[in-house]
UniProtKB/TrEMBL annotation:
Biological classification of the source: Bacteria, Bacillati, Actinomycetota, Actinomycetes, Micromonosporales
The protein's name: DUF839 domain-containing protein
PROSITE patterns linked: TAT
Family matches, as InterPro entries: PhoX (IPR008557), TAT_signal (IPR006311), WD40/YVTN_repeat-like_dom_sf (IPR015943)
SUPFAM superfamilies: YWTD domain (SSF63825)
Leader sequence segment: 1-29
Keyword presence, Oxidoreductase: no
Top-level division of the source organism's lineage: Bacteria
Keywords, alphabetical: Signal
Length: 386
């Protein structure tokens, strides 16, 4: 019996079986289960090869190594993590480039007016390495994270200003960041098989130049309570940050991260999970695990970038899988497929982000139809998001 079959049997029989194990709390929690999506079934692929629910449409915004339409700026290779920054009555979409510094690593922006028309595009960060994901701050900067050993966080200024490195946020294989304005901290994921989950406490909220890096401490189970502990040497040399604190909980390949309503969610690609951390109660649990989907085929595999909406829905992009963006509703513990990209199986979906009005979703296919970093495509989907 494989792990998925065993866990499904465990969940199904939990009501009448007293398990002798102490490491099975997830079997009694409520990780998301298959459900019909709130927007109905996917329609046939459109002209862009995207299958969407009825009422939604897609458009291509930019292609790697081609000028962004309406501008002379050539869009970067391998578009990855992204965010939408408010800009007057319009907005800016920022996107990382997950390539080396010699190949043009860094980040770029596309400027839109209130009607969603492109009015400009430009580079906001250059000379950095493997900028994977990151996160938006409440003061409308973009934290671009380097996914390399001893990688750094760069604070970029899409509304104007020069990028600044933030070494106090730790040097490790950074992935994503999520700002928590209530506790005035930034959460950080680490893309290692034994990676850790961190938070950074700035000395002054709104200024990331100095502060304290802490690591998440908990047991080995998939749910329970947790505490935070200071990382003695955020520089990560000679001892890497993830090995500095006894009792720090390991997570298998930290990826996307999103904060809302006193909770922070993050994904781990090594075990295909979405974790939910309740900051008000100092507890954590699984929001999704493909091995704990008890009926039908698990819809979400290759978990990666994640974003959320005002309604509380989480949108999780797949790295591989079926090239889908899936929708998780934590309040009802349901998961469904929102869209699927056809004909791009050698790519991954990256950088999902909503406009302030919530009616447009931007994202990229990092390698597009070619399967190469030079083939990236950035899209926008418009429709009646709830």
């Amino acid at each position: 019996m494989d792990r998925r079959t065993l866990l499904r049997a465990t969940v199904a029989g939990a009501g009448g079986l007293a398990l002798p194990f102490t490491a099975w709390p997830a079997a009694y929690a409520s990780p998301a289960q298959n459900a019909t999506g709130p927007y109905g079934p996917l329609q046939a692929a459109d002209a862009n090869g995207i299958r969407l629910p009825a009422g939604f449409t897609s458009q291509v915004v930019a292609r790697s190594r081609q000028a962004v339409p309406g501008t002379s700026y050539v869009w970067h290779d391998a578009p990855d993590g992204g965010a939408v920054i408010p800009n007057g009555s319009g907005w800016i979409y920022v996107s990382n480039s997950e390539v080396s510094s010699s190949a043009g690593g860094g980040a770029s922006r596309i400027v839109f007016n209130s009607a969603g028309q492109v009015t400009g595009a430009s580079r906001i960060l250059s000379g950095t390495n493997q900028n994977c994901a990151g996160g938006k701050t409440p003061w409308n900067t973009w934290l671009s994270c380097e996914e390399v050993s001893l990688g750094r966080v760069w604070e970029t200024y899409p509304l104007g200003g020069s990028a600044v490195v933030r070494p106090a946020m730790g040097r490790f294989k950074h992935e994503a960041a999520a700002a928590d304005p209530v506790r005035q901290v930034v959460y950080l994921t680490e893309d290692e098989t034994d990676g850790k989950f961190y938070r950074y406490i700035p000395a002054t909220w709104g200024n990331l130049a100095a502060g304290t890096l802490q690591v998440f401490r908990a047991g080995s189970a998939t749910s329970g309570s947790f505490t935070w502990a200071d990382v003695p040497d955020p520089d990560g040399s000679p001892t890497q940050t993830r090995y500095q604190v006894s009792g720090a909980k390991s997570f298998n390949g930290g990826e996307g991260c999103h904060y809302a309503d006193n909770k922070v969610w993050f994904t781990t690609k090594g075990d295909n999970r979405v974790w939910q951390v309740n900051l008000a109660t100092s507890t954590y649990e699984l929001a999704y695990d493909d091995n704990l989907v008890t009926s039908g085929t698990a819809p979400l595999t290759g978990v990666d970038n994640v974003t959320g909406t005002a309604s509380g829905d989480l949108y999780v992009a797949e790295d591989g899988g079926n090239m889908e963006i899936c929708l998780i509703t934590p309040s009802s513990a349901t998961v469904s497929v929102f869209l699927r990209i056809s004909g791009q199986s050698a790519s991954e979906i990256t950088g999902p982000a909503f406009t302030p009005a919530g009616n447009r979703l931007y994202f990229s296919s990092q390698r597009g139809t070619s399967g190469a970093s030079s083939g990236g495509i950035t899209y926008c989907v418009t429709g009646p998001f709830r």
